[in-house]
Amino acid sequence: MAAEEEHVKKPKSKAEVCGYPVSIFIIVINEFCERFSYYGMRAVLVLYFKYFLRWDDDTATAIYHSFVAVCYLTPIFGAIIADSWLGKFKTIFSLSVVYTIGQAVMAVSSIHDLTDSNKDGTPDSLTIHVALSMIGLLLIAIGTGGIKPCVSAFGGDQFEDHQEKQRSRFFSIFYLSINAGSLLSTVITPILRGQECGINTQQKCYPLAFGVPAALMLVALLVFLAGSGLYKKVSPQGNVMLKVTKCIGFALKNRWRHRSKQFPKREHWMDWADEKYDKRLISQIKMVLKVLFLYIPLPMFWALFDQQGSRWTLQATTMDGNFGLMTIQPDQMQTVNPILIIVLVPVVDGLLYPLIAKCKLNFTPLKRMTVGMLLAASAFVVAAVVQIQIDATLPNFPEPGQSQLKFINLGNEAVTAKWTDKSLTLDKWTNSPYEDSKSEQIRLSVQYGQKPNNYSIDLQSGTRQTLLLTNSPVSIYMLKDIGEKPEQGSNAIRFVNGFNQPVKISVGGTDLGNVNFLSSTNYTLVGEGTSNFNFSSNGFFCNSSKTFGFGSSYTIVIKEMCTENTNLNLMYVEDIQANTIHMAWQIPQYFLMTSGEVVFSVTGLEFSYSQAPSNMKSVLQAGWLLTVAVGNIIVLIVAEAGEFPKQWAEYILFAALLLAVSVLFAVMAYFYTYVDPVQIEAQFDDEEQKKNHIYENGVNACEMEEGLKAHEDKQNDVKQTKI
User: Fold this and answer.
1) What is the phi/psi pair of residue 264, to 5°?
2) DSSP β-bridge partners for residue 545
3) What top-level branch of life does the organism fall under (predicted)?
4) 576: Cβ contacts below 8 Å, ≥ 6 apart
5) What is the pLDDT of residue 198?
6) How confident is the model at residue 710 (pLDDT cuts 50, 70, 90)?
7) Which phi and psi angles does 82 have, rounded to 5°?
């Protein structure tokens, strides 16, 4: 008892609320803030890579999954540090400091004014921002991963032995705080990102989207530190993972030494460790290894699951997020997962599983996990179908060596244009679709009425261009068009003056200046919704408005200005179609993926814990987290090495891989024999008790024999004395 007290530092105060230690509430608040910080930052991360750091989709996806992989590798080291060196409290505190610094560095890295010396709204040196981002992400990965295995265990340490019921409820509340933090942050941080902020120019507010999670992590740190005097602190007593690793290492080394045929084989290769380690530990490791062997196919599930935050978010950027009463940001679609978890967990546990049991179907944990993997694979098939529909609505931009040309007739009569082997006729104030061309220079004939006019036109490879035609007098004017979908769901608009007088134009509060006849403004980005335009010329003022969707581009031609006798007349030429596939079409794939998570992840942890000894839970937790890390590494490899002409092909590849892995896992599960660790350990306890009993009896027998011998010697001495 005294030795046990040496390992435990009691709290200064034993205050309780409703039978729970006060320290528990502090730990729950700390976990909520930390999870808000992590998931809030992670929700906007892939869009930060794409739109701020200007990485392509594959690079953004690869770095995102590299970060997640490191986050799930570091818990192993966090657990070793806590159990073997610092203890849980000091480990949580020190790594939370690292975590907070990392979040602050991420917020600083996203300030575009930091290197924007020319004040044009674009960083002059992305290298500085990339370097700061990588430092910040590394610190965050070390912090969040390092404290992951410690916080829940530290909470469990706060209870006394007679508080088993409260301890069980604590873990439920703890899990609820994780989901609450995840759900709220995934809703809030994309809204913050969508705001505009800046010192010199207004841009998407990534500093606010990263700054709020950084502030929440600071709150988590301060709250945790404030409760220092209320915690029960258990001193480090050695890490079981190190013991397991050393035992396995010794068994392998000993087996290699005795690889010759002259040495008899043993039932299991771990039995080669019995020269140094006791049979109980070896038996426990055997049980753990059986479960870890089943973990081998599991990373493929996580490879698909974690793409909700990368590929699926990027897919949502090409979709329509208008839900009527609200507009959903692409990164907010991730909230579908925690919402569905809250709904599906009680439905599956309280309704589906009991119904299957009543039907007398043997729906074992491993069968459930197989079904979960198949559901995840089907989710990616659905994602591929959605992607095919999206691709059908996306513009086909010219490949290198090609160009595209569009004509707009600003004349008051029809015009015929001829070049190479093509010809088209446009009525007045109409436009043509884009025409493909493989020539860098074309001879163009423009004919109003009877007389043609010839021009030599230079075309830029890999670009789209618009040619303005007019007959007052006959002339042409070339415009370079936008070469990609507008970013972040914005709409790119420009104005062309087809009126014969200069016109001053403004959009919202942005003044675009005076535009002469047959001239155009630069592209201006406007958000989804209604935008207002203001025009003035020769003392006349008029305005107009248009409602835009997501990701469109328009050339707006001023046909007539408002005067005493005429009204404003605008011509809208669609250069790029708005996103037409609604984000709601992602809900089926989220539903299938979340359903798979519920029957795979929850069941997997439950199965693992039921098949391993109580002192080996941390080893299985480390193995489980390792499968998540390996899954993200798989995505990293595919994103960097795979070259797919269309994104849907990559989705099908992942679905096919998981399907194959599901079959493999089903075969492995078929041959798996369930064990009862409690019963096995009870056998060892019985054997130890028998050994102790034999030992004690042996000692007693020896004592009796020695007593009898001493008594006989004493009697002999007495006889000799009498003689």
Assistant:
1) -65, 145
2) 532
3) Eukaryota
4) 395, 482, 485, 486, 492, 551, 552, 553
5) 83
6) low
7) -65, -45
CA distance 616 to 288: 7
Residue type, 147: I
* Rounded Cα–Cα distance for residues 413 and 418 (Å): 17
Q: Within 10 A of 390 (CB to CB), how many other CB atoms are there?
A: 19
> Which residues make Cβ contacts (< 8 Å) with residue 249, sequence separation at least 6?
none
Give the other-Cβ count within 10 Å of 291's Cβ. Answer: 22
The residue with tokens 């089926």 is: 588
Residue 286 has phi, psi (to 5 degrees) of: -60, -45
**How many residues belong to the chain?**
723
Tokens of 676: 């009862």
Token digits for 256? 């290699």
**Rounded (10°) angle between helices 88-109 and 22-43:** 30
> What φ, ψ does residue 449 adopt, rounded to 5°?
75, -130
Instruction: Quick: pLDDT tens for 221-271.
Output: 999 998 888 888 878 767 677 888 889 898 899 888 888 888 888 888 888
Angle (CA) 100-101-104 rounded to 5° is 90
In whole angstroms, give the CA distance from residue 97 to residue 474: 71
Q: What is the pLDDT of residues 610-629, one digit of tens each?
A: 777 766 776 777 788 889 99
91-129 burial string, b = 16+ CB within 10 Å, else e? bbeebbbbbbbbbbbbbbbbbbbbebeeeeeebeeeeeb
User: Can you give the pLDDT at residue 451?
Assistant: 84
d(CA 74, CA 239): 15
- What tens digit of pLDDT does each residue of 546-575 get? 999 999 999 999 999 988 888 899 999 999
Per-residue pLDDT tens over the stretch 202-213: 788 999 999 999
Reported for 273-277, long-range contacts at CB under 8 A and 24+ positions apart, including other chains, are 273/247, 273/248, 276/247, 276/250, 277/247, 277/250
CB atoms within 10 A of CB 529: 11
